[in-house]
Amino acid sequence: MKLTRLVLLTTLMLVGAALAGCGASPAPTAPPVSATLPAPTASATPATYTDPFAYCAAVGTADTPGPDYVGPKVPESVAQGLQAALNAPDTPIDALKNGSSWRCMDGSVYACFVGANLPCEAKANTDQTPTQEEIGYCQQNPNSDFIPAVVTGRETVYEWRCLNGAPDIVAQVVQPDSQGFLSNIWYTISPNAAAGTSTEPTPLPTASAVEQIVFDSNRDGDYRNIYIMDADGGNVVRLTTEETNDFAGPWSPDGQRIAFTRFGLTTSDIWIMNADGSDQIALTNTPQIDEGFPAWSPDGQRLAYTTRRNGNNEVYVMNADGSNPVRLTDNLADDFAPSWSPDGSRIAFVSDRDNSPGVYDIYLMNADGSAVTRFTANAGSTYTPAWSPDGTRIAFRSDRDGSSDVYVVNTDGGGLQDLTNDPAFDWAPSWSPDGSQIAFQTNRDGNWEIYVMNADGTSPINLTHGPADDQLPFWRR
What we know:
It is a single chain. By secondary structure, the protein is mainly beta. Helix content is about 10%, strand content about 30%. It is built from five helices and 29 strands. It has helices spanning about 50-60, 75-85, 95-100, 130-140, 150, and strands at about 100-105, 110-115, 160-165, 165-170, 185-190, 210-215, 225-230, 235-240, 245, 255-265, 270-275, 280, 290-295, 300-305, 315-320, 325, 335-340, 345-350, 360-365, 375, 380-385, 395-400, 405-410, 415-420, 425-430, 435-440, 450-455, 460, 470-475. Strands 8-7-6-29 form a four-stranded antiparallel sheet, with no helix packed on it. Strands 9-10-11-12 form a four-stranded antiparallel sheet, with no helix packed on it. Strands 13-14-15-16 form a four-stranded antiparallel sheet, with no helix packed on it. A hairpin with a 5-residue loop joins β25 and β26 (about 435-440). It starts with about 50 loop residues before the first helix and ends with a strand.
């Protein structure tokens, strides 16, 4: 918005004198007396600023810096603050200076890095009317669980899907800020920030006899952070506090560590941390490449994960310290979401290699990537395979019957059962350690919540109960 500038007006007062005479006879008229005027006051020079923080404190809110800001287009202090806000100490400052935008809102500095085509300078699109591009996509993919951002446009605040050949809104996933920009890509910048600073997480007991579930949520602000709670929904504790989006991942087999995906400045990487949130370590650091959604091997020595380092989604495996990455899948299609069998011999994953692009099924392969076989072959798409603790069943989500439900099937392909059978979206199943229950996320209450149900689908219970979006539950083994 345009800046409101204060203009100093100087009012000149004319000073006059009235002369009166008295006496018996009229006196001669005196010559006129000239009133002496004060010298004109020069107009005040408008203030200018080279410091973005002083500038924003003065103007309050501005969608772009105005003419009274005369400093560099993107000052180094803003680039350093953005580097710190995103915990991206290895990103060159010059890259941030050349590819960032900044603005003022409520007296503070906000910055955005365009990165992977992020729409920094565009206002959020809150239009719920499908575009011709979305309509065309759904005509070709009538029951796709999602419509890609390249079709919807990255400015949309909604998650879209195709339902019976027509675009349909799943949920609102981003809130516009008070100026109408996408709040999830604009970061509050602190003056004199140092890259890598963070708020210490709340400490937890080093061990717990209570079953716990890790999940991620935006309940404490604009960013997704990771939390744990008891399996009954109690004792919720926040583990990560970064101003970035962290997506929950599984516990290590010994229950002492958590692997997760952190979305940084332009891409995502795989991190691990202790179960109390301490010692957060990046296992991958591949500029311009997305890597994420890890799965522990049963012995805790390796992690399978998804990476785009070959140009498309492929499944890799690496040591638990991030060393020795090895490619397991090699296909022009998308292969992702690996899940290790309890005995460590096989990995389930998701692929569209035998379908139209964007229509997915579950495949199985040996832990070394050999002997790939198709496990599901039905209408619609199938995602997020999760092995039961005894290795005899696989839970997954699928839209094969029109809505997205949690299913379970025996590993020999028999005994298929729709566990949730609800018109809402039910995603991301995770087995309890004894195999008697399954946690999952659902939007049946209007927003994403974590539910738990018996392994036969009975007695679903809401664990989180709140207005925020809670997702991706993983049960502590």
